[in-house]
Amino acid sequence: MSRFRSVALFVAALAVAASPVIALGEGSGDSALDLVLLCRDQFHKEGLADSHLRVPRSAPWLALREGDIRGLEGHLAEGNLDDEDLPAWIREWSAHAGRSARKLADRLTPEGRAALRERMGPLHHQGDFAREILSAYLNLGEREARRFRSLPAGDRREWVEKTLDELEPSIKTKGRFARKIALAPLSPFVYGWMGQHILREYYGPKTPEFEQYIVYSPALKSLAGDPKSDRLESLLSRYSPIIVQEIPKEPDYPPTDDLIGRLVWRKGPEGGVVLEPDVRRPAVYAYAQRRRIGGEDLIQLIYTHWYAEHPPLKFADAEAGKLEGLTIRITLDTRKRPLVYETIYDCGCYHRMYVSRRLETLARERFGEPLSGKTFSIEKKTRFKIDLVVLDALRDPEPGEHPILFCWAAYHLPGKIALGRVEEFAKGKRLGEKRYALLPYAELENSEWNGISLGVFNPQGLIWGGGRREGLLLSPSGIYYAGHPRQRGTQMIHFDQEDFEDPNLFTEHLRWPGIPKE
Does the pTM of the predicted model rise above 0.90? Predict the structure, then answer.
């Protein structure tokens, strides 16, 4: 037996012994486990990871998103561990891990891929390489789900606690304390800069006084589905935003910086590859997720679009940089109507909210008039933290009506969401309308160059080539690469004060009245 095989079997035995979930056979008798451990080892050697997933150290065949973690914590706090959904969650987490491993295997160097095949030895049956990897993860996930289902209540609690305890650190907080200590002398300057930034932020909906603008509307067949259906694809199409983009007449930067497009890899001027939007093919990337908010299981629809650059708008502009993404998130109520709209830059900056009038009316009935200094009854004052800002209360959309997102030129501020006709709000010259393709967000994570899977994000969840000077300037605060556009699941808001994915964001930081039932 080779030295590697001996080590692999020893590690496998340790992993099985440490696992709170599944009792497996002797080392080489469990090819699925061996394959997962081999993949993990090779990925680690090449520094490959999915930053929006967190893996329990003793169960590397599982991978949890931030919302999964919060949901599991909620079940633990409520003592609701008999829920029949939990085994299904475990299967889903193994699918996350398997799909991630399959994608990372495509990103291995040719040498790394060959090494993994060689080390797999008899585990590799000359079949579809990626399919074998996915099958191994799903196999272990299925066994784990069955075992969890058979556990008594006490052991289920132990399983949940250990799984949460052994999650690998999140890239969103990893190393933050060390950065603060190392750069402590610079902290007064940094926090002063952050303070003035907060003071000059806008706290009301902006009027789109555009001299001229272009309208991006969803293509009729984007993520096609029955518009009356409650399937996620149909909901994504139903509420896909109309984007109204300001276009200045004589900008002092490339005019294409204000156009959106499908992100593609191109050959660079010096022989490398560069990432940029193809503005001839406008695109919005979308996905849906389920979150338990205020005791209800709700659907969130997330849309992201990309510009080539945030151009420098002043001397030594720290916020300028290549590639800029904006996100709009729509949380639906139990009847699949918009309840809350949110906008942020993909780096997590400038988080703003819009609530439905039904939700604001319910908040006013329960809590009374708005608090001093606030515009809406649902807004809350939080001690020692930045408050969530609500810009407007919107009516329900009419059938077939899409929310309108107004974006300013150059710095691409998502400064207003409205319902109605574009001309009711933007009075300038309309330059025309373009149809955008509504694409799965996963396309960003699996984009290719010459048949090689690169993805647009690096292993830390940062978009390739999107660095900002403010990332260096704000590093003494512990903020991780401030201003750098990030992958889903890794975004923090309010200078890393809050996690954008936290299902408790609304209930803890608003005067949350519950979900309107009418």
Answer: no
